[in-house]
Specification:
Layout: E1 11-15, E2 24-28, E3 40-44, E4 53-57, H1 72-78, H2 90-98
């Protein structure tokens, strides 16, 4: 569990309100009935009522071992850049798609 706070931890959970990383542990679902439906279970040590938590996973790879690129919207946020206006809210995204 102490690896939760490692600088390059593959999974991080952050309290959106405070920005604090959370103590977690992760495991593959031992109850899966086959390789095609194995889930990754991420367990926080504790949470605070009314807080929102962000889960980020790094260095993801597909079944063939190739790196999975971050979606454009996530890369913008990760790199400290602003999202385009239409992507800043679900309402904006809905309005934009309805004009097409």
């Amino acid at each position: 569990m102490s690896r939760s706070f490692a600088p390059k931890a593959p999974i991080v959970v952050i309290d959106e309100k405070t920005g604090a990383r959370q103590l977690i542990w992760a495991e593959m679902d031992a109850n899966a009935t086959g390789d095609e439906n194995v889930n990754l279970l991420i367990h926080p040590a504790r949470t605070s009522e009314g807080h929102t938590y962000v889960v980020a996973m790094r260095n993801l790879r597909n079944a063939g071992g190739r790196a999975i690129k971050a979606p454009k919207w996530f890369a913008l946020l990760r790199d400290g850049r602003r999202l385009p206006k239409v992507e800043r809210s679900q309402l904006g995204a809905t309005s934009a798609s309805s004009r097409r």
